[in-house]
Each structure stands twice: as C-alpha cells, then as structure tokens.
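Incident log, support desk, overnight shift.

02:14 A customer reports that sequence design results differ from what the structure should imply. Their input is reproduced verbatim below. On-call engineer (initials T.W.) acknowledged and began investigating.
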C-alpha cells in the first residue's frame, strides 16, 4: 500500500487516477481548488481506502506550502506524487492572445508543478524512495499554431521531468513523464471558455481517449516492480497519428 498525492483530483485524469488507486487500496491525498467537489470525492473514495483532502491552488506557492505543511505526520510519508493539475486557455495566435491566458498556463502547468514538487521531493529524499509522475502532453512533442504557449508549458514539463530524473535517481526516486494525446475531458471546454459546442468539435468524428485510459497507464507505471522505472510514456487514441493529425470519419 502506497500513500499517493494527486493534484487536480476533482475532475478528468486526476479524478480517474484517484479512483483507480483507491480501488487498489492505496492511501490517497487528493488536492484541488473546489472544496465542495473535493469533499464529495473524499466521501466516495473513502468506501475503498483512507483519504485525506487538501484545498489549494497550485499557482499560489504559499497556499501550496501551507497545505503540505498542514498534513498530519502520519500522512507525510508520501510514496507517489502525481502532478496532474494544469490547464489550457485560448487558441489564438501570439499576436491576438490574452496575456492572462499565458499567465494561467505558465503559472499552473510549470510553476505550480514546481511549487508542489519541491516540498514533496524533500520528503522523498529524506527516506531515499519515491515516485513522481508528471502529466505532460503530446503538445510537447510538436508545436501547433495558435497553441504556442500551451505547447511551451508542456515542453517545460518534459524538461523538468528529465531534470528531476537526473537529480533524483541517486536517491531512489523514480520520475515518469506521461504525454497524453486527445483525451475527452473538460480540457477543451476550459480552453474555449465554456463554449461546449466548440469543445465538442475537438472530439468529433473519431473515438478519443478517456480519462480512465491515462489513469490505467499511470497505475501501471506506479505499480511496476521496484526495479522498473518508466521514464516516458506517450499515449494516442487509435485515430491520432501525431499531435496535429487526427483521422476523422
């Protein structure tokens, strides 16, 4: 049984990951910004395992530190960190984009990941074991027009994962970088500011991945034998050939 810390646990890939680990009997620390949603998830998952919840925004470094420091001692022995919290905002060229969208993506996808990782890495290094799973994207593999800043933020996750592996392997800490392709979650609805009709077109004409597909992959990486370290895993839906190419019916 492991103690697993998951950010962005209230929806999408984060929630699916929490659900699969709960059913496996791992102890969970679920994190998110929406207190009521987090409390409901805690009640649901408590049917399977021990669950602790933390409410904070990864973009706020002081909130992150205060939340992690508030953990009871028996919950600070964190075995696995799943850095899932992140976002995409807007799909415009650099010349027309909203700067606040850039800030949201860089603050959440890059700085937020670092804010959460630093204190937990210190805990893992003190016991010479642990596993960090960073959720990147196939957008890190190939930049696409009008998504430049989002692609850059996910490329940064790839680089951070590589750097973590270089710094942490000697301490017995594994680092896994996960690059999902097109996954049908609230991702596009958030990117398009709640425009559900536009978001639906992203997943039209083919069968996209679902959050549980990525959760299954994360589960495999975390539950692999201790001698096995999955450094990177890229997951496309069957209809997607590369980040910009999806074959639709």
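02:41 Re-run completed on a clean worker. Output:
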């Amino acid at each position: 049984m492991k103690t697993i810390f998951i950010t962005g646990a209230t929806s999408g890939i984060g929630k699916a990951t929490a659900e699969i680990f709960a059913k496996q009997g791992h102890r969970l620390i679920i994190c998110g910004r929406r207190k009521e949603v987090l409390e409901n998830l805690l009640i649901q998952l408590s049917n399977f395992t021990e669950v602790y919840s933390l409410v904070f925004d990864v973009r706020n470094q002081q909130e992150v530190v205060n939340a992690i420091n508030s953990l009871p001692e028996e919950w600070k022995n964190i075995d696995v960190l799943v850095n899932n919290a992140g976002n995409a905002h807007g799909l415009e060229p650099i010349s027309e984009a909203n700067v606040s969208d850039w800030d949201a993506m860089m603050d959440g996808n890059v700085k937020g990941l670092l804010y959460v990782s630093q204190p937990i890495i210190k805990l893992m290094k003190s016991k010479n074991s642990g596993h960090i799973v960073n959720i990147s994207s196939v957008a890190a593999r190939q930049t696409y027009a009008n998504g430049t800043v989002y692609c850059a933020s996910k490329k940064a996750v790839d680089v951070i994962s590589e750097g973590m592996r270089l710094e942490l392997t000697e301490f017995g800490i594994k680092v896994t970088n996960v690059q999902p392709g097109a996954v049908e979650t609230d991702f596009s609805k958030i990117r398009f500011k709640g425009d559900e009709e536009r978001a639906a077109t992203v997943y039209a004409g083919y069968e996209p991945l679902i959050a549980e597909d990525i959760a299954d992959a994360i589960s495999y990486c975390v539950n692999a034998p201790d001698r096995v370290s999955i450094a990177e895993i890229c997951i496309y839906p069957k209809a997607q050939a590369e980040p910009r190419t999806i074959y639709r019916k």
